[in-house]
Amino acid sequence: MKKALKWIGIILAVVFLGMQAVQPERSNPPVDESKTLYALVNTPPEIRAIIDRSCTDCHTHNTRWPWYSYVAPVSWFLARDVQEGRSHLNLSAWGQYSASRAIAKLDMMCQEVLDEKMPYPPYLIMHPGAKMSQEEIDLLCDWVETERDNLMQPDTSATP
Ligand code: HEC
After folding, report:
1. Is the shortest distance between the CB of 112 and ligand 1 below 6 Å?
2. Nearest 5 degrees, angle CA 18-CA 23-CA 28?
3. Cα(154) to centroid of ligand 1, in Å?
4. How far is the CA of 23 from the centre of ligand 1 (A)?
5. d(CA 98, CA 120)
6. Distance linking the first and last C-alpha atoms of the chain
7. Which of 20, 38, 50, 128 has a CA 20 to 30 Å removed from the CA of 6?
């Protein structure tokens, strides 16, 4: 029995070490500073503080990769969340969105937070400080409303 346990331990250790060989991509692609949300949409400091704290890791190219993001299998899930997060909403590449999409993305930012779907709940286990207070949720949603109204104004300076 003892011998069997020892072998199981050895096999698990080998499997664990083997998994470390499969490293996901943890890249932070270069950012064109003229194309970010902050460059293109009026974002007061209190809004930036919320976004930097609670959204940046998954929705920008400025992800802070913690030590456990280097340990498989956790690394695989984290890298996938970041990749998916960026593909749904990329604040580092806000310039890629047309005006109507930008409005929709802003609306979703408020909606997802209201529905407690964002910040992504599993993230809060390791980042309890990222949880948003009701006051911060209201602040974010008020900001969304103001900026969506600004975006809705027809841009008279644009020439076709
Ligand atoms: C741990 C990573 C993570 C964090 C932190 C995070 N998100 Fe997300 N977000 C995701 C993932 C993954 C998706 C795509 C899957 C989904 O919608 O559940 C997503 C999707 C979204 C979407 C798009 C929904 C859609 O249907 O296209 C919005 C909007 C969003 N997040 C807003 C936010 C906001 C605002 C914050 C900060 C308050 C935030 N997220 C924090 C991972 C994250």
Report:
1. yes
2. 165
3. 29
4. 23
5. 25
6. 79
7. 20
3 state SS of 99: helix
Per-residue pLDDT reduced to its tens digit, 50-96: 999 999 999 999 999 999 999 999 999 999 999 999 999 999 999 99
> Which residue is closest in CA terms to ligand 1's atom 2?
58
Q: Where are the domains of the chain?
A: 33-152
| Exposure letters 13-26 (e unless 16+ CB within 10 A, then b) | eeeeeeeeeeebee
> What's the length of the chain?
160
Which residue from 69, 86, 89 has its CB within 8 A of the most atoms of ligand 1, so it is best to mutate? 89
State the virtual CA torsion across 102, 103, 108, 114 in degrees, nearest 10: 130
The reported pTM is: 0.91
